């Protein structure tokens, strides 16, 4: 199955396209780069060590700057089941804050998936994100969910 994604590289550049073989346990994946009108172009091999984040999206044409209201004709992505999930607030090295659920965040691992729950306008197009540890500036467990406070992204389990 081809998956639409936007890849944020460590050099600050972004690529959008589709992939059939993204797997964070492999050192690379292939991206069929999408053009401005959604057409597919060249196939590129992307080294995971050069990636800050992979955003899995529903639509490339989604206008991130527009603020959508609940009554707009957009169907939000289904919220993932909370059973076994941990709520996190993640601040990235480029200054963006994402809130969502994760099933496997451990500070010593090379990355983790985050299923966004906030802000609502972000959840309309973003299905999930894979964030590498080099992209994470700060991780917080929101108050009232599990143990409150910060989690140092560089520390191992206690």
Helices, strands, pairings?
Blueprint: E1 3-9, E2 14-19, E3 28-34, E4 40-47, E5 51-57, E6 86-92, E7 97-102, E8 111-118, H1 120-123, E9 126-132, E10 136-141, E11 149-151
Antiparallel strand pairs: 1-2, 1-5, 2-3, 3-4, 5-9, 6-7, 6-10, 7-8, 8-9, 10-11
Structural write-up:
The structure is a single chain. By secondary structure, the protein is an all-beta fold. The chain folds into 2 domains: 57 residues, SH3 type barrels, CATH 2.30.30.100; 87 residues, no CATH class. Helix content is 3%, strand content 46%. The chain is built from 1 helix and 11 strands, in the order ββββββββαβββ. An 11-stranded antiparallel sheet has the order 4-3-2-1-5-9-8-7-6-10-11. The termini are far apart.
In short:
This protein is mostly beta strands. Helices cover 3% and strands 46% of the residues.
List keywords for this structure.
158 residues, mainly beta, SH3 type barrels, eleven-stranded antiparallel beta sheet, 3% helix
Strand order of the largest sheet: 4-3-2-1-5-9-8-7-6-10-11
Mean pLDDT level: 80
Radius of gyration of CA atoms, rounded to a whole number: 16 Å
Low-confidence stretches: 145-149
Please bin the fraction of helical residues: under 10%
The major pleated sheet works out as:
11 strands, antiparallel
Number of strands: 11
Identify the overall geometry.
globular
The count of domains is 2
Order of helices and strands: EEEEEEEEHEEE
Number of helices: 1
Kindly name the structural category. Answer: mainly beta
């Amino acid at each position: 199955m081809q998956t639409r994604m936007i890849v944020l590289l460590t050099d600050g550049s972004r690529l959008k396209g589709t992939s059939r073989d993204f797997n964070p346990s492999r050192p690379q994946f292939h991206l069929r780069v999408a053009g401005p009108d959604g057409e597919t172009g060249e196939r590129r091999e992307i080294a995971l060590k050069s990636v800050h984040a992979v955003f899995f999206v529903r639509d490339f044409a989604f206008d991130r700057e527009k603020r959508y209201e609940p009554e707009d004709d957009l169907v939000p992505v289904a919220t993932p089941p909370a059973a076994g999930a941990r709520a996190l607030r993640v601040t990235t090295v480029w200054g963006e804050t994402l809130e969502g659920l994760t099933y496997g965040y451990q500070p010593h691992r090379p990355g983790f998936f985050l299923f966004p729950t906030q802000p609502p306008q972000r959840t309309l197009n973003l299905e999930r994100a894979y964030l590498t540890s080099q992209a994470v500036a700060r991780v917080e467990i929101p108050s009232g969910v599990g143990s409150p406070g910060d989690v140092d992204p560089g520390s191992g389990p206690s």
